[in-house]
Amino acid sequence: MAIEKLHKRYSALISLDADRIHQLRMEIRYLEIEYGTLLEHRDLLSRTIDEFRHIVRMALGELIRHLLELKIAWYKIREKMGFTEKFEDLKDEFEAFEEELNRDKSDTKPTLSKEEEATIRELYKRGVKLCHPDMVLEEHKEKAHNIFIRLKSALDRNDLKEVQFIIESLEAGIWDLGPEVSSISELERLESMLQDLRLKVAQIRREVKGLAEADDYVEMQKYPTVEEYIQLQKIAIEKESERLSEKINEYKNGQFSS
Predict the structure, then answer these.
(1) How far apart are CA 237 and CA 96, in angstroms?
(2) DSSP code string of 189-244
(3) For the residues 234-243, what does the mean pLDDT come to?
(4) CA angle 145-151-162, nearest 5°?
(5) Using CA of residue 224, residue 227, residue 229, residue 232, what is the dihedral sign?
C-alpha cells in the first residue's frame, strides 16, 4: 500500500513537471518569436537611420563643414571681444563631423537599388531566425555566433550575394541544429532560459524605443522623401552661413554692433 501511494505521488509529480515543461516551452517559443522580430526591427531601423545620415552627409557635407568653420571663427571673435563663451564643444562637433564625412567619402560599399534593399532586408530577417546566437541552444551558440557575424558584416557592406549565399546554405541544411532534447531534467534549464529571454526582450524593447525616438529618425518622418529634407536643410544652412559671414565681415571692417 505504501509503495502504491509513493508511486502515485511520484507519478503526479512527473505529470506536473511535464505540464510545466510544456508550458515553459510554449512561452519560450513565443518569446523567441518576439525576440527575433525585435532583433530584425532594431537592426533594420538602425540601418535606415545610418543610411539616412550617410545620404545627408554626402549631400550637405561641404555646406555643413563650411558652417561649422564659420561658427568656430565667430566664437573666436566673440572671445576676443570679451565674451566668455567656450567653443570647445563646437570644435569637438567639427572634428567628429569631419571624421564621419571622411569615412563616408572613403566608403566603397555598393549602392543598392530599392529592389535590392528590400531583398537584403528580407534575407536578413530570415537569417536572424536561422542563426542568431540568442535563438539557438547553448551547444550551438559558438557556431551560430560566427555565422551571424558573417551575415551582419555582409549586410553592413551591402553584399547581397554573400547574404544570399549564407541564407541559402542555412536553408539547405548545411548547418543542422539537430533535434531538441526532452526530459524531466530540462525543467530547471528551461526556467533559466525563460528568465534570460524575458530580460533580453525587455532590453531590446528599450533599444528599439531609443532608435524610434532618435532625433534623426523623428526628423525623417516629417518629410515624404530624403530629397525634400535635404533641400530644406540646404536652404537653412546657406542662410545661417550667410548671416555669420556678414557678422564676421562686419567685425573685420570695424562695423560690428552686438
Answers:
(1) 18
(2) HHHHHHHHHHHHHHHHHHHHHHHHTSHHHHHHTTSSSHHHHHHHHHHHHHHHHHHH
(3) 93
(4) 140
(5) negative
Q: Which residue has the cell 549565399?
A: 165
Retrieve residue 173's grid coordinates.
Answer: 541544411
Q: Which three cell numbers stand for residue 74?
A: 565667430
- Residue 85's pLDDT band, with cuts at 50, 70 and 90, is low
Unique residue bearing C-alpha cell 571622411:
102
Distance (Å, whole) CA 43 – CA 1: 62
Angstrom distance (rounded) from CA 86 to CA 92:
12
Q: Which three cell numbers stand for residue 164?
A: 544570399
**pLDDT band for position 210 (50/70/90)?**
very high
Residue 60's nearest CA partner among 244, 246, 240 is 240
Grid coordinates standing for 193? 532560459
**How far, rounded to the nearest angstrom, does the alpha carbon of residue 1 sit from its chain's CA centroid?**
64
- CA–CA gap between residue 147 and residue 168 (Å, rounded): 13
Q: What is the mean pLDDT of residues 95-108?
A: 74
Contact in structure between 197 and 32 (CB atoms under 8 Å) = yes
* Distant-in-sequence, close-in-space partners of 150: CB < 8 Å, separation ≥ 6: 162, 166
The set of cell numbers assigned to 237 is 544652412
C-alpha cell at 23: 508550458
User: 10 Å Cβ neighbour count for 63?
Assistant: 16
